[in-house]
Amino acid sequence: MRRDATGSYATSVAGGETVRAFVPAPLPPMPPLDLSGARQPLLERATLALGRLDSVSLLLPDPQLFLYAYVRREAVLSSQIEGTQSSLSDLLLFELDESPGVPFDDVVEVSNYIAALEHGMARLREGFPLCNRLLREMHARLMARGRGSDKAPGEFRRSQNWIGGTRPGNAQFVPPPPQEVEPCMTALERFIHNEPGAMPVLLKAALAHVQFETIHPFLDGNGRLGRLLIALLLREGGALSQPLLYLSLYFKQHRSHYYTLLDRVRTEGDWEAWVDFFLEGVEETANGAVQTAQRLVALFQQDTRRVQASGRTAANGLRVLDALRQRPLCSLGQLCHTTGMTFPTATKSMLKLMELGIVRELTGQRRNRLFVYDAYLSILNEGGEAL
């Protein structure tokens, strides 16, 4: 549906140039979203897929293991959209204190993303509301170290920003002037909390994500925080008990169309085309996450049987395998710390897993060796190649 522009323009100054900055109208859209035709079945399918994802913990012996790995996969993908070159392996190496040499600026952005997500989810579990204060707290963690740490972490911007182009005058999009940021974010917060249950949480998340990206309330980190906002809304709205739905891979795979649809919302008011894209992404991503969990369960069961059949060293081998399920990339020192095994026993057990083809050594060295649970990391890495 075309509604014409979904906001108004205000004159602003950026980089010494006078520009037309877009100020979005408050949500919800007027006239209301059209849910006729194929859109209602699409919403129902996405909701069912989300329900299956929420019950995935019933499949897993330890859902926290899946959550640990899946959150890190998402952090890598979301940061790649912003141009980082880090991989999941880089992040896991970075988290090993004894493994220097990983590119700091890229991987610290990914690590910050995890810290921001974990802080947001912890606050929601405490009963803290999803509000602008929480978003600012998360932004402070997102930008705490590395690139962007000098761009007012945790504070709404007080200067004009722009998106695309080589300068403000030829920018693809200019968000609201700084004096409009606080009122726009207050209106977004009001939409998130007004009339609980009046709008399906998936639709609320779809609309709120676009509105946040349009306001672009921070000097940096808006894309990553805008994607985190989706996970927060689904958690607070009761659609998910754990933060297991992330659309970064879907947005990455359809990057050009994603940005086109955001522009169409702003210029033509075509919320319906965006909602269709969003719901299709939720259905595809939720189904993919369930399949990933099922594949990991099958892998763990298969490798457990292989270790159990390995003879009298099987008990120690299973302890090592369990540790690798928690951290698919580790050193022998970390393994000893995790399992309480002696260094010689850990070494012998790890070499047995290498012999079985479950584990691969990364360094080729005799000292300070690093080991990876190859098949596990491969499953998580799918779609995670840098742009």
Question: Can you characterise this structure?
Answer:
The structure is a single chain. This protein has 2 domains: about 5-290, Fic-like fold; about 310-380, Arc Repressor Mutant, subunit A (Orthogonal Bundle), CATH 1.10.10.10. The chain has about 375 residues and is mainly alpha-helical. The chain has helices at about 40-55, 65-80, 90-95, 105-125, 130-140, 180-195, 200-215, 220-235, 250-255, 255-270, 270-310, 315-325, 330-340, 345-355, 375-380, and strands at about 5-15, 15-25, 330, 360, 370-375. The mean pLDDT is about 90. Strands 3-5-4 form a 3-stranded antiparallel beta sheet, with helices on both faces. A two-stranded antiparallel ribbon has the order 1-2.
Short account of what is shown:
It is built from 15 helices and 5 strands. The protein is mainly alpha-helical.
Question: Any key phrases for this structure?
Answer:
single chain; 387 residues; Fic-like fold; Arc Repressor Mutant, subunit A; 3-stranded antiparallel sheet; two-stranded antiparallel sheet; 15 helices
